[in-house]
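Appendix B, record 7
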Amino acid sequence: MNGYSYLLKTLRFSRRSLLGGMSVGAALASAPSWARGGNIAQDQPIRVGFDELRGDVIDLSVGSGRRIVEGRRGMGVAVNGTVPGPLVRLREGQNVRLNVTNKLKVDTSIHWHGLLVPFQFDGVPGISFPGIAPGETFAYEFPIRQSGTYWYHSHSGLQEQQGHYAPLIIEPKDGEPVKVDRDYILLLSEFTPLNPYFIMSRLRTGEGYFNRQLSSWTDKYPMNAAERRMWAEMRMMPTDIADVSAPTYTYLANGLGPKEGMEYLFRAGERIRLRLINGGAMTFFNVRIPGLPMTVIAADGQNVRPVEVDELQIATAETYDVIIEPGNAEAYAIVCESMDRSGMALAMLASRPGARAQLPALRDPPLLTMADMGMNHGEESGHGDHSSMDHGTTPKASSHDMAGMSMRDTSLLPPDVEIGPGLDMVSMAPVDKTGDPGLGLRDVPHRVLNYRMLSALEPNKDVREPSRLLELHLTGNMERYMWSFDGRMFTSLDDEPLRFAWNERVRVKLVNNTMMAHPIHLHGMFFEVVNGQTPAHQPRKNVLVVQPGASASFDLTANEPGDWAFHCHLLYHMHGGMMQVVTVVGPGEGS
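Structure tokens (predicted):
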């Protein structure tokens, strides 16, 4: 047995031992230490914002303390005493050693989101390493093989919700190809004074607990009586857009609330690179700068052909780099509205300190339609004309369309999907919606980004036709707050990873049988989104949003050996079971 095989088998045993057969969302009292909240309260205050670290050896320390955001107080987890943690700035081609010391009273970890690293340094407890115990230091060592905008965060329990996240920028070895006058980071997230384990317990006992936009017979939502009856008969809510939102959350820009004055200085006519990072636990943000277009030049750290838009939706864990060129206005507002439009994160482009632009009001909350339930009569299949979805149109099903139809017809599912209490909805006609700009942005009058507008700037190296199709169903029971792949909540007891042969080329089709959009993240590798571009120019990403009741596909070259996490990046969905392990067999190891 060579060293790679031994390490792989040891870590698989560790995963079984750590999880002890429990699902990620199991009862907290019997869960392993990495999945419990623990007593991490200390008295020191946490600073807002991030410092910058660079070099071949970087020291990081994870601790806890008090947070105050717009007068709201709560406990937090910080890296080097700040939320967000320090910006780590690296350079392509260097070797780095990151020493992470745990000063909490519970285990912690750091996952380097989007980085190509040896799997034992990926930072996922129970999958790629045991975690970092209280008082211990773990050294991550790896070469930097890429460039772009990334971030890092905890993969232990719910620490990410408490502030354990930070930006990470890698400079290209040959210099930035896009020349700009200023380079800024906008890291979006949320703050809540509530213990995240309290939030999880409430979601499990009543998934609408934090939804302040429920529909009723007296509301002003644009639905007629027949539509309201349909939703009631299905025991579902057209306002079920986000599981947790304002006022439970205060939305943050670089750790600051919307009233706390986050600003970026500019001079008229300058070219500014704005690196957008969604480090939130549960929030999709709709980002726009009234009066200024944005030119998207990178997605998930990978360069794309420039595309100009007026607004974009950035899902949890995604990153986008955009170029903006402010004009002669005194200030411009960077408006980052939560997808359910319950609140916003806010920053200002200011020509002088303190300059402020007029803020737009929150737009009306969006509603789910029958198309979001997989009712797609007359829509594209994803294999033909893409024009209808390029404009974000989503037809609504009528009461006649719904007659005699069931949203729980399990006969529509393939036989490998497990039927049980964790599955309460089946999409009737899921189609590819990579041209969907996202909930709430389908009917706006201006240009909105969607995945079909993205094209890789540098040609992909592997353009082989995939040798097989792997279809995975995103499943859940929202009333019980159970989330899963193929009806199976994550547990190491079964130890049935998704297996890929070395250098295998696979097309993975994700079918969403739920009413919620899921940002699915693959650790350790990039994939190419199947979006209508030629194989050479399909955009490379590591997070793919699958719209409600729809499907999306990506092509993967399995060339990074080891065990990798594969999960929904909505934190409470992952903690509730929507996670799996991808195993790539190393070269010469067999299938």
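Remarks on this record: The chain has a mean pLDDT of 86. The longest helix spans residues 3-19.
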